[in-house]
Amino acid sequence: MANKAFKFRIYPNAKQEELFQKTVVCARFVYNQMLLRQQENYKDGRKYMSKIAANTYCNQVMKNEYPWLREVDKFALTNSIFHLDAAFRRFFQKAGGYPKFKSKHCSRQSYTTNYTNGNIKVLEACGQIRLPKLGKVRARIHRAIPEKCRIKSATVSFTSDRRFYVSVLVEYDAPCTGMQLSSDIKARSVIGLDYKSDGLYTDSEGNTIGSPKYYRRAQKKLNKAQRRLSRKCGSRKGEEKSRNYLRQKQKVARMHAHIANQRKDFLHKTSTETANRYDVVCVEDLNMKPMANRGFGNGKATMDNGYGMFLNYLEYKLKDRGKVLIKVDKWYPSSQICSCCGKQKKIPLTERIYTCECGNQMDRDYNAARNIREEGLRLLVS
Predict the structure, then answer these.
(1) Bridge partners, residue 326, by sequence
(2) What are the tens digits of pLDDT across the range 368-379?
(3) What is the pLDDT at residue 289?
(4) Parallel, antiparallel or unpaired: strands 150-158 and 201-203
(5) In this structure, are residues 311 and 283 in contact, taking their beta carbons and an 8 Å threshold?
(6) Beta bridge partners of 157
């Protein structure tokens, strides 16, 4: 079994938009109140409240103290409690930091509701999506959900450029990969990808996919719009937000959203082409966050490339097609090993041509991609 989300843009009316805002506020309120109660329990020496106990407390105590919580979808409040419990679990397992209170200014404007008794349904014929409490919402159904998929939940979100979306999570039977045998691999197409800081990647066939650098292209226009925003009445802390300030803020938000959408479109098309063409793709298991900090010196280009997002897209698309993504350890010296003779030597990052004693001379990234391919095949066979 596997999960997949289908994201659609929706167009709620004024009444539905108001109910959405109430639901987001209530979900954030419950999250913060339960986080405060967990902190008080710890200070008083009481045990950690489980998510089931917290949900019971919300239904029996909080909804009596705050009757306006009954006006919104109950599953949105339950999922808010479950998200807090998941954050605490990650903290206990040392996989994340301590949960923080959600701010109405900085937190994501969204909530999640569960499927039960057909309360969530994509009505493709009339271009609508049925959601709990909201009812039928006008939507752009750009693709159909397969009949064999079972709806599990839906997440309604509101972006900074004033657009509403709903992400419908479905469950389906994932195809088996069936690529464990070495005799099976010989008949399949295999490729290795090496991250390229001034592009996207270089593959083991010698091809280089460059990044369009959408942020760099729009940076001059974006800087001008942000300077205009900084001069509007309301840009300083404590000032009342003027209409011109809010209007200019929306312009800046739309520009950021347009850049992000351009990048996602490029990464989706590139990952789909790769997933359709190859059966086994070998990559390095890189952590892109440290590579985007100031110490690395190339953070803006790293974030503009979106290589980590590209790997996420590639992984689920290969999985949908019954294919495999092999992740090689990030400490594997792919750039130091000669892809012809196997000898290893240290070379500085500034040296872009790999030269070996055996006479091999090739691009550094191309050499690394060939080594990643061979190491990925070794991991797949073993």
Answers:
(1) 282
(2) 999 999 999 888
(3) 77
(4) unpaired
(5) yes
(6) 110, 165
